[in-house]
Design a protein that fits this description.
The chain has 333 residues and is an alpha/beta fold. It has 9 helices and 14 strands. The chain is 36% helix and 21% strand.
Length: 333
């Protein structure tokens, strides 16, 4: 038998499939994968994060939809500002079940209702709908420094009571909710300067880019520069001790945080103005700070229309320096 010469090329080696049958990889298919390898890699990198985000979002909705919490706490929505995540907050409230909702201050950016968009009015409409006794949900509004002066207006506009601080008992523990600006020495000692800074900050949001990256950076910088997280946390823990509360909840700093001292627990609910929003749940399993996972794609209208107060009747319900005992702080937005 003639043997093939060593100089002759044996050609492509046959491969075996799962049934053990020999086959050859077609040359056109090999060329396609080689030539389009970079394109396929790009597609993989683009779509895998979206898929992971979508799966996490879906899992979050499934878990929240099945479980009923005693209390849900959100704060610092700043309706009327360009950075408000009102649409996401509304979607969140529509997917979670609870017996009590605490709006922990700074739900508005200021007293100028002309700044409110349709999305902002939809959120307020849903809050009014929740306050209807037939839903058997207690809705509580705790006044923040940006909400100051809205107590009488809000009780009529949304149909819920507004408090300086709110206390309730659950699972054998005394719970206390207070916005937290009371423990911010800069706000307390510089009321006029704070209002001027607020006016300038709202103006900067208008001229910032679509993502509001610079405005959100300034917000985080302000929190870190004033060391608000540690200051408000320590002040709240001391205040809770005098009021004999085992748990105290604040907002104001825009940074979610958990601390404990001398048997008293402190929780900060974060904010709904950053790229990463957070909220607090209270149930038999304890207190948990969550990060809200929005839909992976954002289809909101970039040209949201500002509407006059009378244009959307509110009565219609529309379809770092931390102490060592700091346990958790949310990721920067």
């Amino acid at each position: 038998m003639d043997r093939p010469s060593q100089l002759e090329s044996p050609g492509p080696r046959p491969k075996a499939n799962h049934q053990g049958i020999k086959y050859k990889v077609p040359e056109p298919a090999k060329c396609f994968f080689i030539n389009h390898l970079s394109t396929l890699s790009l597609i993989y990198r683009k779509f895998m994060p979206l898929s992971s985000s979508f799966n996490a979002c879906l899992l979050q909705k499934m878990c929240m939809g099945k479980k009923c919490f005693d209390t849900v706490i959100i704060s610092d929505l700043h309706l009327g500002s360009e950075v408000s995540r009102a649409r996401d907050a509304l979607e969140f409230l529509q997917t979670v079940k609870f017996r009590r909702l605490v709006l922990l201050g700074d739900i508005f950016a200021d007293l100028n209702f002309r700044r409110l968009t349709k999305e902002h009015w939809k959120f307020l409409g849903y809050i009014r709908k929740l306050s209807n006794p037939k839903h058997e949900v207690e809705v509580v509004w705790v006044e923040g420094n940006h909400d100051h002066g809205l107590t009488e207006v809000m009780s009529h506009l949304v149909g819920i009571p507004v408090y300086q601080e709110y206390a309730w008992d659950y699972d054998g523990k005394r719970h206390l909710a207070i916005h937290g600006h009371q423990f911010d020495s800069f706000i307390v000692n510089n009321v006029l300067l704070s209002r001027v800074g607020q006016f300038i900050y709202l103006g900067l949001q208008k001229i910032d880019s679509k993502s509001k990256r610079f405005a959100r950076y300034l917000d985080r910088l302000n929190t870190r520069w004033l060391r608000l997280s540690a200051q408000v946390g320590q002040g709240a823990l001391s205040y809770a001790k005098t009021g004999k509360a085992e748990r105290i909840f604040c907002g104001h700093t825009h940074a979610p945080l958990q601390m404990e001292r001398d048997g008293v627990e402190y929780y900060n609910s974060g904010a709904w103005v950053n790229l990463r929003c957070s909220y607090i749940t209270v149930d038999k399993e304890g207190v948990t700070i969550h990060e809200y996972l929005p839909e992976p794609t954002d289809n909101r209208d970039t040209g949201e229309e500002r509407v006059a107060v009378a244009a959307e009747p509110p009565g219609v319900a529309f379809p770092a320096g931390l102490s060592a005992d700091a346990v958790y702080e949310g990721l920067p937005g």
